[in-house]
Amino acid sequence: MEFEYIVKAEGHRISLDKKGEGFVLRHGDRTLEADIRVISPQTLSLIVEGRSHLVYVVEDKDRIYVSLGGTTQAFKRPGEEEKPFERGEDGAKEGKTVVTAPMPGKVVKVNVAEKEAVRKNQTLAIVEAMKMENEIKSPLDGVVKKIYASPGDLVDSEKPLFEIEPIA
Amino acid sequence: MFKKILIANRGEIACRIIRACREMGIASVAVFSEADRAGLHVQMADQAVGIGPPPAVESYLDMDRIVEAARATGAEAIHPGYGFLAENPEFARRCEKEGIVFIGPNSRALELVGDKVRARLTMEKAGIPIIPGMNRVAAEFAEYASEAKKIGYPVMIKASAGGGGKGMRVVCSDEDLRPALEAGQREARSAFGDESVYLEKCIEDPRHVEFQVLADNDGRIVHLFERECSIQRRHQKIVEESPSPALTLELRKRMGETAKRVLEVAGYNNAGTVEFLLDREKTFYFLEVNARLQVEHPVTELTTGVDLVHQQIRIAAGEKLDLKQEDLSQRGHAIECRIYAEDPANGFLPSPGKILFLKEPSGPGVRHDGGIYGGWDVPIYYDPILAKLIVWAETREAACRRMRSAMDDYVILGIKTTISFLKDVISHPRFREGATTTGFIKSHFEGWQEKEAPEETLMLALAAAAFFDSRRTRETGAPSLRTKEAFSPWRVLGKWRIGEKSD
Lengths: 168, 503
Hints:
The structure holds two protein chains of two kinds. Chain A is mainly β. In chain A, 3% of the residues lie in helices and 60% in strands. Chain A has two domains: 2-76, Glycoprotein, Type 4 Pilin (2-Layer Sandwich); 88-166, CATH 2.40.50.100. Helices cover 35% and strands 23% of the residues of chain B. The interface between A and B is large, with 63 and 60 residues.
């Protein structure tokens, strides 16, 4: 069986085929044989060429987190809907940019009003989390098209806060 | 001895204190805000009392509610932990008035050491070396300007009500003084409700070395040697160790005696920490007193064999200090790393959220002081500290290796943490040499990014994810969404990038 994941915006393909008691793994031009055991719903033991690896796997919405050998990787499954909102200047090319919350927190201040012209890096709002205030800045010169948040709102990570229309 | 203690705190430090209570046969009362109902400290305590909504001002900082909870549960003493009400003289006074024992210093000593300018003046009079600078708050700009000239640039602006780096500014020249003063005053006003600032000589690239002191109610005082806490980001410590690689026996002795003297002068009792700056010439200056149990207290416990929380409780109960200076010694080396819910690759942005999986490290010489568990939703309202990892070993080098190995075993999935960053700090050649100063992170770790995992690690991680998904598919009976049959567009060979044509 072949599986695909997105690792830091790059697609990776891995195939897993049963062979005897174990599996043959293929990734790019590399092939490895692995003995895989399930230790618990979140824990796997892999023995590959005599080396033992303890692996922890959990999923969270569209992401799979894998911890192995002191590193943690976050994989995204492709095919599931891409984020509806693009961030930063990539989105700007399509006519508007949605500025999202960088982390879960509480909106303590909104510094701009709808229809207001803003400059790149101008502070649009302040979101506070864990006793730290974080300034939300405009990624471009433009006009505030829409404001989705008001002071006191609790916002989740990646929740849209503003829609900015670039100056033509 | 007390029969019941209320812990006016949350997270890892509340859990630490509850453990001490259990060991001493004392019942513990946890208090919790609505955001902490499922918190680990609530689970561990014998009793738990809800004290209000999530924001700290309406719960953990609300003196009325905390005193009321102590009354209602019959707790005879309150341990404030660190932060929140720990160094608030008004709260200590309130407890004194209500006949509840505050496990910490008396309110007068708290008041003195909390006022940085007054503390400087008092200490200077007592012959304690202080950083050259002002001993009062100036009335007008001209006075600051002439003081700055007298001290010599660069100078440091500090808030009189001080703490946490708030209001602090380095000024290098005359023309920068006015705007920096205004900014410092503004910040101090919003942080402490008091805009008083003063100027000090800026000690360049110093080490931060502090001494742990215990004083009983009758004036017996011992120090438990130093902790070096030079590794900081945003003026906040992230790695601490003991002993300091910078101290000689002679210097340690002198600083230790000075620390004891500071607490004597302040009329201090219970546990306290005297902070010093150590400059390049190894001259030390009194900085301030931290009038509480410190976050980094475990490194002292591991090197001296003294349980500081037990000592605090015994002293507060009126017992005589049973430690003698000449019997105390440092054994081996201890290092602590603070594990924060922050993204170190992204300006240490807070990273609250659900912990999907947790595996704490263990092994010889490894201690984990945590306030978390797998499934816990780390709230957005409080300090991002999740846990502390502390190791002890015979030598500094062995402790560094033990820390590195323990961090490799430490797994927290679901939220971002500082673990991978701290691993690189501990492994840095300059850290290994003991070349630790407060500028360390800025000089060596600006723009830090996590190293790419080796190719085989990535491959095996992908295989594990695929294996996980294949099992999930079998269990739910749904056809796998991720096999190539379902997604022919991805059947092309090689790596591909979102938004790009594949080759």
